[in-house]
């Protein structure tokens, strides 16, 4: 009996250990969604809940292929078409494989030599990938680089080195239900006034003035424009334009002013921690709010719901300037451990910068292309693309330094707390302290 | 099992005669299969350069052959598969976790020192300012094997001049007989065999190190048809163990598993390496006040959560089971299936559903009850919300096991109690409950252990939040497991070493509590 009891104890204990230590395989899938709960919104994710925990295993590298590309499910079909064309041109076999949690799975697979040659991902993964020796530099010629928008090329650099080729730039803007608010507001005060009137007129149908993802744990990505409107932000920049991880400016005078604006909007019940990624899009597409701060990923569902919308730049804040969003750049990376480094380099440096490839990738996600020529062609036909581009014109690329991982959580939470009534200055001072301490620890 | 014939006969003394021929054939075929499989796996492992695993597999295969090829060691024939699985899935992970707990393994410290240094140098390659870009064809001298011959770069500079580049240097290429595309890429040159994409790709590793030396650096390939002149700005001095950045003149020395500036000014290189840190992770857990207080606070809630979950689900499940076990009730089958529904729906769906129902403004619960509770934002309300959801998720299981146990309690015991004058309450308390607990007691402990590590529920509903102390590392509904997960895989800087140290603590705690628990159930069984 004794022995049996102890055996059972051991088994349960081991189960605990297994779950905690070795849960990496299955659970890691959900990890990056929290690493960058904010930045993940810049990927293709809409407000739909995370993919079900089943089938989240990393793909198994196709051994027979001469070039292996990993991407997410949305981009795979379009990429497959062009990968095949590339394969035909060069007489090689290209495999495009789907990874549901690319950032973590790429890092893990590369570590053990089972990773792909090329991945498609967001630029803010860069610092982390360099830190772990997972990506190789790209020697893009000056001629090719100059064909891309300056912001998108800046985003592919880390410590002065280029690590990839961009294909799209995305950012948030203001989406407006034109049935509820016919004209675009210039300032936040105007927005609140117009929204409140629409709410009054609708007789209960409109419940919210403005939809913006906050949630109980907050969202630093949507918080940043409030700080940038007063020249606040997250990191100060170095002389060469890089973000400086040693100069956190979350409690700078400008950032505090932004926090005060958040507090004001929270008090007026314009912003609420009860609106999060699980219900934000639904509230807008069901016509319950005239304004929605969001990105291109919300367009398909708004169209599907039959909402008549228009996209404009974010409003300006009283006493400050316009809210400037973060830019997220989608790019192609080459693995540092690529088994087919030559073809990977060839594909990324010579094939991705082609106009037809960039146009095809645009068709899939609706994000403004990074290649100027492709953008010009698209924006002439599609006014949404032009509007998104205009909304992000003054924005800066999201920091891609590893220190940014120390910011998402504390800044998001501070914003959520301020919106639900905490004192802005004290709370952002505390966030600053927490962020600085976390960076020092890392 | 190949050796079934020998084992079935059990005691060797009663063994009679040799086994039938077909059994012997099957047995040896199975053993041969194991050996063949082991060989195949080792082969692949040798290719990957994993010597340790090859040795382990050799031992396993030898053990299989030794145990099953003879008629001796009968008990081992039964035990070996179980033992192997135990080692593979339980002992090995524990050993691995324990070993990780003594390292700084985590983001920025995944590589070895050599790899980290190589990565820094490779990433420092910059184009020499003002140098031209060349069109490139990669070739070998005519007559040589494309897979092995001396690599040669056939280059065309922007002015259309042709060059031949080898590790010796750059030379002019006679233009006679050279054919090129409109962009200048050479397609044919006398004396050379130009490699196709596949052939070039096969030699990618050599190309990575191949450079045509030039005054300030070397000409290297970018893909298949372009070359640039670049140089690495960082050099490694192995003897002095330091890095020098030639572009700034700064030197870097190893400190704290990273290359830091020798003069202490400026930033370290982001690529650090994995190294042993001794008891540091355990020390951090015990001495760092945030971590320690967090650990204690989370531990208290974790125990309360697991206990309350078990008690609440068991009480509700048992009451319903008693109710639906009554002979007078009609349509029991129907009610029972309805009650099991919450158990049949995947837990993560339920958790997400309840999360939206608990929304303060838009959730069903506040809407129906007219309350205005910030369920997921107030620490205590969030705890209540978690417990309510877990009650919903967990009671059907308890209902099931209690129903099963109740049906195995003979009716005559209850009848005897009634004849002795016991009322229904007394019967339940003195007769049914003790008999029921004997059967479900161990399951309650298992349920406790499960809920102690109920990662999915917490992670999907609150992610451990709300975080009220101005600190996003320790949440009000965090369990130790979600806490360890956040440290290991997300949050600030994923630190597998520290998370391993925490999971060792969890292991010890759950192990001890389960041990005590099982000792207690023994006393329950003494009722009989």
From TrEMBL, chain A:
The keyword RNA-binding does not apply. GO terms for biological process: maltodextrin transmembrane transport; maltose transport. This is Carbohydrate ABC transporter substrate-binding protein, CUT1 family. It comes from the Bacteria. Residues 28-61 are annotated as: Disordered. Residues 28-58 have a biased composition (Low complexity). Residues 1-23 form the signal peptide. Pfam families: SBP_bac_8.
From TrEMBL, chain B:
It holds the Pfam family BPD_transp_1. It is a multi-pass membrane protein. Its main location: membrane. One of its GO terms (biological process) is maltodextrin transmembrane transport. It is found in: Cell membrane. Residues 299-517 form the ABC transmembrane type-1 domain. GO terms for cellular component: maltose transport complex. Keywords: Cell membrane, Membrane, Sugar transport, Transmembrane, Transmembrane helix, Transport. GO terms for molecular function: ABC-type maltose transporter activity. The chain crosses the membrane at residues 21-45, 51-69, 76-95, 298-322, 334-355, 384-406, 427-450, 496-518. It comes from the Bacteria. Belongs to the binding-protein-dependent transport system permease family. MalFG subfamily. Part of the ABC transporter complex MalEFGK involved in maltose/maltodextrin import. Probably responsible for the translocation of the substrate across the membrane. This is Maltose/maltodextrin transport system permease protein.
